[in-house]
Amino acid sequence: MNMKKLQNMATILRRNSLEMTTAAKSGHPTSCLSCAEIMSVLFFKEMKYDTKNPNNPDNDEFILSKGHAAPILYSALYHSGCIKNNLNSLRKLKSPLEGHPIPRSLKWVKAATGSLGQGLGVGVGMALSAKLKRKKFKTFVLLGDSETAEGSIYEALEIASKYKLNNLITIIDINRLGQRGETIHGHNIKKYIQKFKGFGCRVFSIDGHSVKEIISALKKSKTSSKPVVILAKTLKGKGVPFIENKNGWHGKPLNDDDLKIALRHLPNPKLPKIKIKKPKPTKEQKIKEQKIKEQVYDTKISTRKVYGETLAALASKDPNLLALDGEVSNSTYSAEVKETKSEQFIESYIAEQNMVSMALGLSKKGFNTFTSTFAAFFSRAHDQIRLAALSSANMTFSGSHAGVSIGEDGASQMGLEDLAIFRGLSNSYVFYPSDGISTKKLTTLCSKIKGIKYIRTTRSNTPILYKPSEEFPIKSFKILRGSKKDRAILIGAGITTHEALKAHDKLKKQNIHVAVVDIYCVKPFNHSKLIKLANKKGNKIIIAEDHRPEGGIGEMIAKGLSGTNIKIKHLAIEDIPHSGKMKELLKKYKIDSAAYIASLKK
Amino acid sequence: MNMKKLQNMATILRRNSLEMTTAAKSGHPTSCLSCAEIMSVLFFKEMKYDTKNPNNPDNDEFILSKGHAAPILYSALYHSGCIKNNLNSLRKLKSPLEGHPIPRSLKWVKAATGSLGQGLGVGVGMALSAKLKRKKFKTFVLLGDSETAEGSIYEALEIASKYKLNNLITIIDINRLGQRGETIHGHNIKKYIQKFKGFGCRVFSIDGHSVKEIISALKKSKTSSKPVVILAKTLKGKGVPFIENKNGWHGKPLNDDDLKIALRHLPNPKLPKIKIKKPKPTKEQKIKEQKIKEQVYDTKISTRKVYGETLAALASKDPNLLALDGEVSNSTYSAEVKETKSEQFIESYIAEQNMVSMALGLSKKGFNTFTSTFAAFFSRAHDQIRLAALSSANMTFSGSHAGVSIGEDGASQMGLEDLAIFRGLSNSYVFYPSDGISTKKLTTLCSKIKGIKYIRTTRSNTPILYKPSEEFPIKSFKILRGSKKDRAILIGAGITTHEALKAHDKLKKQNIHVAVVDIYCVKPFNHSKLIKLANKKGNKIIIAEDHRPEGGIGEMIAKGLSGTNIKIKHLAIEDIPHSGKMKELLKKYKIDSAAYIASLKK
């Protein structure tokens, strides 16, 4: 399409964006108007994509990190022939054209955006997937200028430079105005140039409303050996005098009268003939398999170590499996993958936010991602994990160093909120193995099932509890001890399962009989099975968990058992934990065998 | 102290760090050895502080962002005369010398560190507090090189430059080695220079083991008009040949034999005479008061608006009150503070992580901070909020745009995890007002009580439910409707309180009587009061909350009521919410009046 026509397309996208948001009576028209030329050149000239198949592996990828500009994306997808929906159904309950882009509603959207500063990390993952699979497609990410204040942007650029992702093109729509006023740097483009050059990118600075300059910057970007950043100086509300470059117009649709006036200010070109270039198919780069011998677990070992060894075994059989880690792979044991299949290990450094977004991008391009760090540090990427869930992603996360059982390092290193974080996602699975066998089985399970999966591992070595043949179905639990005489159930998970067993043995010597349940699957959970069991065991349950009381296993069970007359005692970490030996801390914070026994006797 | 003696002090700090970690049998000696000269010059020459009083408002402040180097900090505090503890009690249960620095144990530590990349944001807050109070003290932050991969570092630098914090000196201990190998840039100092200059800092590059170069860089930094970054090239494990600059020695103490050998490699100087310079007292800059008339609330209004107006009224009376906001102050209404007392409003831009760390720094320097953004976006700063709680901080947070009730913007903008995040902190308070009166009272309450406080506000206007004279004590709830004939309790909070009231009125017409409870205080909660009430109301409770089912009000109540025969129905947001009108979404996700009625009739 020639420049004249591309300019006309930009105008059509502008008109649509104004009409759509007025029809919706909400939305962000001015944020669309500033990037109309950029969107026109990308969708109608630059990008190669199969309008019939959003999952064509050779499609160029586009991520609208400034998700509030959704209307112009929908308009571009409409005119390119990718979607046929009525644009004026924007933001309606029955319409897939939601307020911010979300994959659940539109298959052309790969990642949910709207929590700003996350699109670039997803783009890094997609660009990296092209390198790994030797694919020619490019990844384009459109950022707003306000979101460049988010640190996640610089985490992403650091990794993009490190892995030489010259197939990643970041375009920043510098329209000067944020939601409530001017951005930090306004139109001081120099500041942006310094920052992005400082992060090792090839930087082009252009007039974002010049089709010619956009085309030439994209042309030059093809020869870059570094990630490309195009700084596009634009005007918010461009093209409509009474809103152009004016403050106070963020997230405000025009009323019907203003819309009429606005449309009079804009030309009304006829729709050019549109032809989208389809990408040439490239054949997949096969990564060679390499069998490693299966580990046998018959002696004390830490679940984190078994996680790593199992992952390495899975990686050797599945070239699509990738392990990502935040600079602690020798603690989470994901380093086992690096040692076996180095090309299937992605060092993500201490940048958890980007690590999660990057994993999302990789998973959306067909990789089976396992992302690990200390359980505590997933709180650093909680918002990215939230958006991964909103993106209906299939990803596995593993948090090591759970709870006070890590010992001397102290509170900042203890994962005490991770169960709450991962339980609080739609369609998530939360697993918490207590020994080597269950860890091996559950890690393998995670490589097969869809959704967001979380595996919580423990730092210290724990005894083997199960036979190698034991199966660990989703939505179930194990009864490790039980007799007709039981008058209560001691419930444990991970480290506390072993404390429950110790308590059982001590109590037995005193001729007090209790059952012991191991909750290896925290979510989903089979409450009715537990209720039936409790009814036979004196309707008394004692739960100990190495986690905060809020949002963990205790509250999950309490809710499932509400209305029954089953008495629940919940032992969890209430205070800010101190440094000390594991044994001392389990005792001090009352989740050890003695605490089980004391609360049973109360 | 002269250079010779400073070098000797560095050696003594090294010897102590090795001995302490060997005694503890855990810890990070090599990470201490790389910064020994830096710590020596800072604590024994550069910094002015009152060794008798860690809270002397004129003390220079020091933050060890690389918290795992805690031993060398404790050693420096010991030799400066600030603490008298036995250094070899490091990491013991009864010792205040914890694995990572934490204020609860040591008053010389202002902020918990150990989750990397957070110390600089705290430093930004402290440096900003000096500017606001016209104090002369400087803030020094020591970073590791690995943690410069964290985006929060760049959020902090951006804000430090924006607010011209030339009283903030960041020193980066570039020892090349991270936990599991080399950092992204290793000893390529050029890369660091580019990045930090790009963020508008004055950058000095020095040999981090040269006392002379450290002194001269600190001298030059005094004339800088910009934030200062000192890039100190160092060697991990410096001074002990068999660990110096060697990989595989992160977080590993020496065994007794290796310690003996190591100490032989180091000189054994006698302790120099130590004299710490005490800062000159400066008198506080009084910020002028300015009364504004109290608002009266007698008609439909959004709780977020009342939050902002109340905050503005409080700010006008209290010069120590600060409002921070993440570029959405016109949505959270914290902009009201800006309009009334602009000098008490800190624009933090879209950088939630730094906003929270900065607020922590400000609060530790005596400001009463109120930090606001969309409820959803506190998930972006979950780790910083966690560390604020570990820092025993007194801070208030307010999240607007809670839940699906925001309407058309869609899932990424809906706060559905915030109650779980803020409930899951030690000693936190969680408030959820449903009308203007309760919002005004609870916001005022937050300005008075200590701890981490959270106020959840709602986007849309809601009717007034209470008299201006109504009081809202902590750990209580309100019974809005009740009669002898009640056969159940409808529990609401925020938006759902109004749905419960609608349900009550509809049911009354059908001659079905129910009580309505408004949970304005989610944490702490008075379960026994609710149990007594439920016993009089048919032992049936229906709870609807505009939040995920996990970690919210339903699980909180279910746990508190476990073992009773009170039946609980819990209505919450299970799925990924769609865009739509508020009314449509409350209905679709079954937390509206109809849902209350339907589940009562089941």
- Chains forming the largest contact: A-B, 108 and 107 residues
Placed side by side, the strands forming the largest sheet of chain A appear as: 8-7-9-10-12-11-17
Percent strand of chain A equals 5-15%
N-end to C-end Cα span of chain A = 80 Å
Assign a percent range to the helix content of chain A. Answer: 25-40%
- Sheet with the most strands of chain A? 7 strands, mixed
User: What is the count of β-strands of chain A?
Assistant: 19
How would you describe what is shown here?
The structure is a homodimer of 602-residue chains. Chain A is of the alpha/beta class and 602 residues long. Chain A contains 21 helices and 19 strands. Chain A has helices at 3-24, 29-33, 36-46, 70-80, 119-132, 151-162, 189-198, 211-221, 256-265, 303-317, 329-332, 335-340, 352-364, 382-390, 418-423, 436-446, 495-509, 527-536, 553-560, 582-588, 593-601; strands at residues 61-64, 139-144, 168-174, 202-207, 228-233, 301-302, 321-325, 345-347, 368-374, 395-400, 428-431, 452-456, 461-462, 478-481, 489-492, 515-518, 521-523, 540-544, 567-571. In chain A, the strands form 4 sheets. In chain A, strands 8-7-9-10-12-11-17 form a 7-stranded mixed beta sheet, with helices on both faces. In chain A, strands 1-2-3-5-4 form a 5-stranded parallel beta sheet, sandwiched between helices. The radius of gyration of chain A is 27 Å and the shape is elongated. The first copy, chain A, starts with a helix and ends with a helix. Chains A and B meet through helix 6, helix 7, helix 11, helix 14 and helix 15 of A and helix 6, helix 7, helix 11, helix 14 and helix 15 of B.
